[in-house]
Q: What sequence folds into this?
């Protein structure tokens, strides 16, 4: 249910390792996806996006993979740094629907020096 | 600098009082949004506005009200009817609802005493 647990899924990694953060989305009609990063006490910041006609998109140190068959999205961060520590959200948008993003609960990434 | 600002950063109110959270953007965006964020949960949409003088309820609009008299401003009033108002409130804007990479403000943390 909505109030199951107050704790986010957490991923702990060592500095320099690669991180993979996963997101399962719910709407098979969603065709645009965004990853956001939210540092403690701040608003989310855009990281990278991907449309459903792609299965991979790369940015600087980040890669997003989309598997529409199983409705799964992942964010890969290469050579993770302490400054990457934050909560990461995926958002799904159905362009044939309301266009309003639906956000996941988020994953807390902790990078140990 | 273009951006989206929210004030105040921290807000305290007594039970039974209405309080208004400010959100201003100078990005010339048509669409603006209000979200509520609780610990361990994703962002939940309160209200959104596609154009001036128009706004729509989101998933959790009860106990909240908004206005959109100017393009750059979208204030949110948390009324005494909101049963559990203590939360982190995020305002966002996008070029339009149909081009919806959202830019977020820094948030306002509201605490009801």
A:
């Amino acid at each position: 249910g909505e109030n199951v647990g107050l704790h986010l899924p957490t991923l702990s990694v060592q500095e320099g390792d690669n991180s993979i953060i996963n997101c399962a989305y719910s709407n098979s009609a969603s065709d645009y996806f965004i990853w956001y990063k939210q540092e403690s006490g701040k608003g989310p910041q855009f990281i990278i996006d991907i449309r459903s006609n792609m299965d991979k998109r790369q940015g600087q140190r980040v890669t997003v993979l989309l598997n529409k068959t199983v409705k799964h999205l992942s964010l890969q961060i290469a050579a993770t740094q302490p400054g990457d520590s934050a909560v990461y959200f995926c958002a799904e948008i159905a362009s044939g629907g309301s266009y309003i993003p639906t956000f996941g609960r988020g994953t807390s990434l902790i990078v140990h020096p | 600098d273009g951006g989206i600002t929210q004030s105040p950063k921290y807000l305290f109110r007594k039970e039974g009082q209405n309080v208004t959270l400010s959100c201003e953007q100078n990005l010339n965006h048509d669409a603006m949004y209000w979200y509520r964020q609780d610990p361990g949960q994703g962002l939940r949409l309160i209200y959104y506005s596609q154009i001036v003088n128009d706004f729509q309820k989101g998933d959790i609009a009860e106990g909240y009200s908004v206005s959109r008299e100017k393009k750059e401003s979208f204030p949110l009033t948390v009324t005494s009817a909101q049963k559990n108002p203590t939360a982190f409130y995020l305002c966002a804007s996008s070029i339009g609802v149909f081009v919806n990479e959202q830019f977020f403000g820094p948030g306002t943390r509201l605490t009801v005493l």
